[in-house]
Amino acid sequence: TERTLVLVKPDGVARGLTGQVLARIEAKGYRLADLRLLHAERAVLEEHYAEHRGKPFFEPLVEFMLSGPVVAAVVEGDRVIEGFRSLAGTTEPTTAAPGTIRGDLGRDWGLKVQQNIVHGSDSPESAEREIGIWFA
Ligand code: ATP
Hints:
Layout: E1 2-8, H1 10-14, H2 18-27, E2 31-38, H3 42-48, H4 58-65, E3 70-77, H5 80-88, H6 101-105, E4 118-120, H7 124-134
Bound molecules: adenosine-5'-triphosphate.
């Protein structure tokens, strides 16, 4: 079995979508292994998004992630990393496929950062690294 880190980002929590996101994860057959509601610290976000340091959207992304509470979850199941990314849809919510979390629940708000409701780890290495950051 495999684990991934899922975040419900501040836009998702503020819009009251946490329950829907968790319900879709559970309905797909994955298991919640750990769950927290928290205000992220800047240092945690800078580590989480280290690969994007230096990009034009890095600082706006960190500011957005600091703008309100987030939900962090460890989700378990066979092939959950690719399974959750498929459930989440592509990065840009306007064009993410209907049926996905981003495609059904998100859109472009004309802001500097894609407010796309959720994050999911993109590889086993990222998953273990990110779980270590958020569930230290
Ligand atoms: P995630 O990692 O959030 O599950 P992803 O792999 O599709 O989704 P990344 O490329 O890792 O996205 O980017 C991380 C986050 O940074 C995105 O989810 C989005 O909020 C923001 N982002 C990425 N690319 C852009 C961009 N070109 N302009 C604005 N914001 C962006």
